[in-house]
């Protein structure tokens, strides 16, 4: 029985083995490694025989196993000739003098995640798919770990931020490997000049790496692709590291360190470091202010998509110590004793104007803009004294600063002077800054100082980020009409175009559409003219010591002593000012206005159809013209021989209608016109004909020679001596005739 069982068991086991053997053959035939499959990267490098130094580094870095089996890599593999040059550069005799840290850096930086042949290296892997000809970098296996930095005299453990203004623990902040491939270069209008600007000693061959050439491309391996290169590249510094290690930019770096860098404790990074190192030290993240264009230690670019670092990188133009110090002392610090006293917004603008959120290629200085929309204002041949392609972007050391529009246009004078901080608040609140920082558009700015605004009751409320108003002896009102009022005054202090001088006499339109007048370096506004004190009806243009050197690129700044305020009175009140006495120039016109229903409020002299916040022009016929209108039965009154007596207070509906239509036809609607020779053409009045259409007048305007032609072809001339009277968004002119309407 036992013998029979043993025989059967032997037969069964034999069958099982035979069956298993058959199945294994079938499995291997289907799933086994194909005989035609290329060897892994490590074995291919061995077989080729000219990568002995690289293989030594791979072994020393502990990457033999990784590169000797399945995977998905691209390797920029330096051959032995490349290492021979490397040994000579480093002053060493051979590969055995390369330590483990250097070997690891060489290997990990040469390794790119995923396999890419040349047909894809120029393309960007976006979340939505491939974007052709849009990439010049790939993420490598190399990243920096915790390092020691001296902060405030103490050694602390630091890890770099891997986002702009923040840190993501799970991200290693891997460095990128740049390359110069024909598909990308041609599609982006780049050429050999862009490559040779950084590497003048190397010929551009349509596929280059930093400082070298790709001598053989697209070697397919089981675990990726090999591109053979003739240059050993060690992991480059990022912008933060390069700036920190080059003392010639230390003054520029000090501003980052003083204002814009913080060190934030990271419990996750600390725990990881303590486990790996056995140390009890905590780790802090070196973080840059999030209001900067970028964090110079962030290797990841914007990280809006996972791979956006393939398609772009940062650029920093760093002025050397001599250039930066000279600029600070001669320009930025005119009203500040030290850099430490600069406002943060000035510091941010000073640094951000040197930072680009994109790669500024050498041939593209003129058309690659920073966050302010400004091109790189450097001559690549004479102003750039140091140029490097770093792991997260381009670095240009310069012998001059970037002259930002915020500092060198008419915005700069108040911006860099703390005595004008409220004016800057108003400019920023009203978007005036955007307008007057355009270098090609000319402006004139009358400087509105803090002292004048505060004397008028206005100030900035930091808690609510708005203006406030405190009337004399009254209660402070935060917000409300305060911002609107300050901005309206600001608009009265800014003019389009460049005014060379206020020494003569004239009238000028401000950027808000209201007008100011000037004479002998004194300027008046509608508000100043309301003063009963003649000395306060205008404010003087004054000289400020040292201010003349600041020549704006787009106009002029004038310093004034006082505030060009606006009137709160109605237009009718200014007609009254010059129309109460029979000898006043506006007497006849005003009397008709005041004594008729068109004057809807006898106290404020509010005119029917004239609204606050709207621009107008009033043409006031002189006494002779008023009497002629009575003679012509356009206005009510009596004529006896040569004696003409206007009826200022008519009672019949017919006569009242005459007055109403007459006055309405002498007021331009929604437009203010001065005797400055600027505005010409047809303009609507407040008058409506029987069809409801607005009555039109035609303006022919030359400097100090303004003529008005009515619907009947009759022309009246403006009498300049009694004109350009400043009112509420309105100018009042006297004319030598009257305007005849057709109803």
UniProtKB/TrEMBL annotation:
Pfam families: Fasciclin. It comes from the Bacteria. Residues 38-233, 574-739 form the FAS1 domain. InterPro entries: Adhesion/Biosynth-related (IPR050904), FAS1_dom_sf (IPR036378), FAS1_domain (IPR000782). PANTHER family: FI19380P1 (PTHR10900:SF77), PERIOSTIN-RELATED (PTHR10900). This is Fasciclin domain-containing protein. It comes from Candidatus Pedobacter colombiensis. The lineage of its organism: Bacteria, Pseudomonadati, Bacteroidota, Sphingobacteriia, Sphingobacteriales.
């Amino acid at each position: 029985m036992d013998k029979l069982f043993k025989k059967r068991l032997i037969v069964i086991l034999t069958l099982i083995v035979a069956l298993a053997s058959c199945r294994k053959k079938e499995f291997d035939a289907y799933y086994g490694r194909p005989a035609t499959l290329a060897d892994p990267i490590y074995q291919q490098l061995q077989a080729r025989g000219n990568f002995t130094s690289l293989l030594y580094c791979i072994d020393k870095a502990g990457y033999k196993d990784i590169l000797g089996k399945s995977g998905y890599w691209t390797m920029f593999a330096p051959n032995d000739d490349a290492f021979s040059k490397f040994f000579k550069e480093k002053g060493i005799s051979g590969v055995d003098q390369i330590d483990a840290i250097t070997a690891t850096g060489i290997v990990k930086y040469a390794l790119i995640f995923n396999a890419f042949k040349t047909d894809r290296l120029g393309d960007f892997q976006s979340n939505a798919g491939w974007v052709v000809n849009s990439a010049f970098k790939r993420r490598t296996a190399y990243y920096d770990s915790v390092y020691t930095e001296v902060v405030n005299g103490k050694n602390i453990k630091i890890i770099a931020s891997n986002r702009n203004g923040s840190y993501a623990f799970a991200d290693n902040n891997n460095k990128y490997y740049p390359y110069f491939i024909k598909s990308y270069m041609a599609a982006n209008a780049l050429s050999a000049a862009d490559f040779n600007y950084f590497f003048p000693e190397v010929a551009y061959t349509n596929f280059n790496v930093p400082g070298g050439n790709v001598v053989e491309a697209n070697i397919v391996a089981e675990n990726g692709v090999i591109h053979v290169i003739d240059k050993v590249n060690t992991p480059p510094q990022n912008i933060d590291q390069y700036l920190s290690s080059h003392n010639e930019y230390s003054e520029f770096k000090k501003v980052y360190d003083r204002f814009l860098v913080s060190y934030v404790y990271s419990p996750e990074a600390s725990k990881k470091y303590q486990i790996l190192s056995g140390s009890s030290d905590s780790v802090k993240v070196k973080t840059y202010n999030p209001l900067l264009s970028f964090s110079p230690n962030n290797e990841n670019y914007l990280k809006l998509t996972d791979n956006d670092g393939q398609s772009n990188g940062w650029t920093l133009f760093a002025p050397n110590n001599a250039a930066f110090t000279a600029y600070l002392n001669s320009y930025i610090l005119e009203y500040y004793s030290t850099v430490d006293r600069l406002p943060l917004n000035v510091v941010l603008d000073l640094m951000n104007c040197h930072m680009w959120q994109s790669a500024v290629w050498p041939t593209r200085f003129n058309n690659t803009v920073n966050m302010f929309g400004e091109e790189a204002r450097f001559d690549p041949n004479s102003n750039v004294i140091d140029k490097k392609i770093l792991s997260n972007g381009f670095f240009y050391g310069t012998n001059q600063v970037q002259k930002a529009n915020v500092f060198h246009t008419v915005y700069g004078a108040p911006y860099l002077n703390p005595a004008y901080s409220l004016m800057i608040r108003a400019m920023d609140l009203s978007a005036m800054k955007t307008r007057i920082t355009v270098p090609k558009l000319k402006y004139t700015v009358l400087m509105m100082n803090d002292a004048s605004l505060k004397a008028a009751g206005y100030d900035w409320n930091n808690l609510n980020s708005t203006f406030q108003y405190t009337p004399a002896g009254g209660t402070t009102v935060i917000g409300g009409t305060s911002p609107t009022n300050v901005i309206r005054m600001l608009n009265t202090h800014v003019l389009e175009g460049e005014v060379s001088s206020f020494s003569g006499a004239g009238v000028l339109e401000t950027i808000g559409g209201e007008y100011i007048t000037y004479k002998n370096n004194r300027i008046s506004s509608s508000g100043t003219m309301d003063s009963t004190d003649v000395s306060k009806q205008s404010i003087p243009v004054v000289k400020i010591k040292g201010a003349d050197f600041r020549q704006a690129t787009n106009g002029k700044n004038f310093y004034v002593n006082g505030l060009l305020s606006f009137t709160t009175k109605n237009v009718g009140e200014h007609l009254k000012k010059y129309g109460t006495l029979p000898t006043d120039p506006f007497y006849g016109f005003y009397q008709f206005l005041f004594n008729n229903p068109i004057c809807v409020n006898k106290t404020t002299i509010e005119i029917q159809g004239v609204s606050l916040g709207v621009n107008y022009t009033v043409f006031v016929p002189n006494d002779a013209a008023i009497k002629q209108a009575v003679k012509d039965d356009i206005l009510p009154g009596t004529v006896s021989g040569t004696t003409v007596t206007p009826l200022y207070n008519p009672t019949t509906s017919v006569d009242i209608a005459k007055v109403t239509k007459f006055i309405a036809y002498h007021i331009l609607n929604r437009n203010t016109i001065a005797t400055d020779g600027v505005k010409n053409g047809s303009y609507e009045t407040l008058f409506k004909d029987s069809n409801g259409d607005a009555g039109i007048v035609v303006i022919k305007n030359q400097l100090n020679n303004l003529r008005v032609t009515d619907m009947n072809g009759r022309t009246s001339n403006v009498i300049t001596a009694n004109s350009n009277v400043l009112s509420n968004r309105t100018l009042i002119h006297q004319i030598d005739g009257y305007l005849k309407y057709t109803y």
